[in-house]
Amino acid sequence: MDTDFEIKAYYAGHVLGAAMFHIRVGQQTLVYTGDFNTTADRHLGSAHIDRCRPDVLITESTYGSTVRDSRRARERDFMAKVVDCVRRGGKVLVPVFAVGRAQELCILLETYLERMNLNVPIYFASGLSEKVNTYYSLFVSWTNEKIQSTFHQKNIFDFKHIKVCYLFFQFIFKNRFIFSHGIDHMSNNLVQ
Amino acid sequence: MIVFASPGMLHAGYSLHLFKKWAPDEKNMVCFC
Lengths: 192, 33
Hints:
The structure holds 2 protein chains of 2 kinds.
Chain A: E1 5-11, E2 19-25, E3 28-33, E4 56-59, H1 71-87, E5 92-95, H2 101-116, E6 122-125, H3 129-138, H4 145-150, E7 162-164, H5 166-175
Parallel strand pairs in A: 3-4, 6-7
Antiparallel strand pairs in A: 1-2, 2-3
Chain B: E1 2-5, H1 13-22, E2 29-30
């Protein structure tokens, strides 16, 4: 490798640990990044990069041509719809990927339900998410400042209302019936 | 009850299974975020 070669990683504010790279070889520079987010969300800080004029920029372009509502408005809309549905006796299904948005929504729901004093059972059905939440707790220094500063009082990823039902769902898929004993924290009507 | 289920595109696995199960009842809701 040429000695005149430099790579610098920057915080991308996407999922935990996501990075953008500024690469310099001699006089030529390149910025390479996957998804990044320039506004902080409930668990991550915002992306930042030093002032630069790269010769080449390679970037993810999700939402690149979309003007989105503010995060606050989107969250309010989401919570209003969820609470409305639950109050009418309905069940809410939120399809998510195991990492990223899922943790953000968990924090949002947990915070909101606690404030509203609503007791709605929340389940997390994913093969990965129990591990994911563990890693979020381990690498809390990569989250935003607010979470880090309150971490010694309360681990925000140690969710009170949210239960992981990985094994429970395996039972359903394999056997197509529910064991109502021995899984005492699970509601029997989960799949009714 | 609120259930987060993967995968996010509702094409297989837990989320699709629950979707099929809950879809007939109009009180239920599916929410893409």
